[in-house]
Specification:
- By secondary structure, this protein is mainly β.
- It is 13% helix and 34% strand.
- It has six domains: 136 residues, no CATH class; 84 residues, Immunoglobulins (Immunoglobulin-like), CATH 2.60.40; 79 residues; 73 residues; 100 residues, Sandwich (Immunoglobulin-like), CATH 2.60.40; 82 residues, Immunoglobulins (Immunoglobulin-like).
- Strand 25 and strand 26 form a beta hairpin.
- The termini are far apart.
- 25% of the residues are buried.
Length: 660
């Protein structure tokens, strides 16, 4: 190519998109090789006018130098199409250099109108666009173009007809302007399904619209879009129906497909026909292929596709395929994971699959084989099912089922029984997920503990026990249990390596028992024949509801005394006598063993004085008696001596008997 300046003043080597004056609207007019025309200072309406002028025969005196600033196409036919009207406009007939334009309006929403029609070209352009809104140009200087909203124009120089072709319809342009066209496709009285843009290079070009629905009436609308983005409706020359032809069995072909899928190919859009057969299309390619699966409920039945159409019943036919195990899609078979022990996996086949079953093989965390009946809680398992038909494998496996069963052990019906020296707990273990395998769970154990209440109200643990479930659901405490005490006991389950489970609590008081002996027994003798007794004992050590002290003198009847306070006094006792004092406690049920203390009363310090006085008096009396007696005895002796003297002296002489 000779790289020099064109007649219009633009270098051939320049690309329109690189030209400093090339706007977006002008780039849209770029030819397939990437070259376009650039006219600085011209708006989109002028471009439309120039394009129209390019199709007119030049009049006399049209020769002259075109306006400068136009890039040249490499396609010479296209170059001539646009250079010719530019050269015409450089003549004295019409001057366009003084036109001023407004901002480009949005595509498909505005059109450009000129207030004054150019008188010098009105006759030539009267046959171009006959409509209520014509695009015209005014030779008057400073004419402004106002954007207004309106429907696309009708262009009598843009018309088309519609004919049937294989798998669709054909648009044949009868009169057309070279450029881009848009065809909208919609079913009759339906929404637009698609739009296609096609390029028309001559007045008799055609465009095929395929992959339509068979036996369906369509509405096609063709629109021409000019350089400014203004859309102009094209006229349909014939009012013949635009109904597609019918579907034949030969126009649907079965093609190879992945196992479990059905694949068909057709130049028609048969999606709606498959939908009428309860088929869900999973994949649809541009080459007209359709991939689908059987619906879940019909997975094990023969495939029967009926293709009756409401608009052309004569084309009805049926495509069928007999059932094969290839129809089985393991991915869609629902497998219910086990949530309880013993584990059980339940695959759900559709009702049409009556002779199918599944055999599962399971493994544990170390890939060791495990039977479903031997599974344990809190362990990861993976099971794979082998699909069988009439107990014979079809060499298809279900996706692995992975699960871990959680057993939430709870203590129910916790009961407590007590004596005055023991506590016994009984309960039932409940588990929603593992109730049927409790006796097989070797790693299940129990924890029991009891706390005793102290005098200040606080509790302290007396004993804890751990044992496995094989020993039964019972624990007994005997060590450290005291009578008539408040106890708080709890039971919870333990499973190796797992968190603590919820515990159950119960409170109870032990039965009354033998009270403790009194402490700090003190026996005193405040007086010679009096004994005092004091002692103490914590109220809890009475081991019963009542708190009574008893004291008595051993072997002394009637000496027993009782009091709520350990203070006793024994009076009027014998002096200098040994006594044994017994002190014990009583709680309303039991009596403690006595605490004995031996004590002696002192001698009577008043008794010697009395004896001495008595002795003195006795001695005095004895002495007085002796003296008196002695005196009396002396007097008697004197009297006897005197009497005998008297007798001797005064005795008369002895008379003799008269017989003597």
């Amino acid at each position: 190519m000779n790289l020099n300046w064109s007649l219009c003043g633009v270098h051939y080597s320049e690309r329109a998109s690189a030209h400093p004056h090339c706007s977006l609207a002008k780039r849209e007019f770029e030819d397939p090789e990437g070259w376009t025309v650039d006219a600085p200072g011209y708006g989109r309406s002028e471009w439309r006018y120039l394009a129209d002028m390019g199709r007119k025969r030049p009049g006399p005196g049209a020769l002259g130098r075109p306006a400068a600033g136009f890039s040249v196409f490499r396609n010479w036919a296209h170059l001539f199409l646009f250079l010719w009207p530019f050269c015409l406009m450089s003549s004295n007939t019409l001057t366009l250099t003084s036109l001023s334009t407004t901002t480009n309006p949005p595509i498909s929403s505005t059109k450009t109108t000129v207030n004054t029609s150019p008188p010098s070209i009105s006759n030539e352009t009267s046959t171009t666009n006959q409509s209520s809104s014509q695009t015209t140009l005014s030779p008057q200087p400073n004419t402004t173009m106002t954007p207004t909203t309106a429907e696309p124009e009708k262009d009598r120089n843009c018309s088309y007809s519609v004919d049937n072709v294989e798998f669709g319809l054909k648009i044949k342009m009868t009169i057309s302007t070279p450029g881009n066209y848009i065809v909208s496709v919609a079913e009759k009285r339906g929404p637009i399904e698609r739009e296609e843009i096609f390029l028309i290079s001559n007045e008799t070009s055609t465009h095929n619209i395929t992959s339509l629905k068979p036996c369906t009436e369509y509405e096609l609308n063709v629109t021409f879009r000019d350089l400014s983005g203004t859309e102009i409706f094209c006229d349909k020359t014939e009012n013949k129906t635009t109904k597609t032809t019918g579907l034949t069995e030969q126009e649907i072909k079965s093609i190879s497909c992945n196992p479990g899928y059905f694949c068909y190919q057709s130049g028609w859009n048969i999606n709606f026909l498959l939908s009428k057969n309860n088929i869900f299309i999973e994949d649809m390619n541009n080459n007209g292929s359709y991939r689908f699966k059987r619906t879940y409920d019909k997975m094990c039945s023969d495939l029967v596709l009926k293709f009756p159409t409401e608009n052309c019943s004569k084309d009805t036919f049926t495509i069928s395929e007999n059932f094969s195990v290839d129809f089985i899609d393991p991915e869609v078979i629902n497998q219910t994971k086990p949530t309880k022990l013993p584990a059980k996996i339940e695959p759900e086949f559709p009702s049409s699959c009556k002779d199918f079953s599944v055999e599962y093989k399971c493994s544990g965390i170390h890939n060791e084989s495990v039977e479903l009946s031997d599974m344990k809680p809190f362990t990861d398992y993976s099971c794979t099912g082998d699909i069988k038909m009439n107990n014979v494998s079809i060499n298809k496996t279900l996706p692995p089922v992975q699960f871990n069963i959680d057993c939430d052990f709870t203590v129910e019906k916790l009961e407590i029984s007590t004596t005055n020296t023991s506590i016994k707990l009984n309960w039932e273990t409940k588990s929603d997920n593992c109730q049927d395998v409790l006796n097989k769970l070797d790693e299940l154990s129990y924890h029991c503990s009891c706390q005793q209440q102290k005098g200040d109200g606080r509790y302290f643990t007396i004993e804890e026990k751990f044992f496995y479930q094989t020993e039964g659901r019972m624990c007994e405490f005997t060590s450290g249990i005291k009578p008539f005490r408040n106890y708080k006991c709890e039971v919870r389950h333990i499973y190796t390596g797992q968190k603590d489970f919820e515990k159950a609590n119960i409170e109870e008081k032990t039965k009354p028992g033998i009270p403790d002996q009194p402490h700090d027994v003190v026996v005193t003798v405040p007086e010679n024949n009096k004994i005092n007794v004091t002692c103490s004992l914590d109220y809890m050590d009475f081991n019963g509801p009542e708190k009574i002290y008893f004291a008595q003198l051993q072997g002394v009847p009637g000496s027993s005394k009782e009091n709520t306070e350990c203070k006793f006094q024994f009076e009027d006792l014998s002096y200098s006598t040994s006594y044994t004092v017994e002190v014990f406690t009583f709680n309303g049920h039991f009596t403690s063993s006595p605490v004995r203390s031996r004590v002696d009363t002192r001698y009577n310090n008043k008794a010697p004085i009395g004896s001495l006085v008595f002795l003195i008096i006795f001695i005095i009396l004895c002495a007085a008696f002796f003296i008196l007696k002695r005196r009396k005895s002396r007097n008697v002796n004197e009297e006897q001596k005197l009497f005998s003297t008297v007798i001797y002296t005064n005795m008369p002489p002895r008379k003799h008997n008269e017989g003597d």
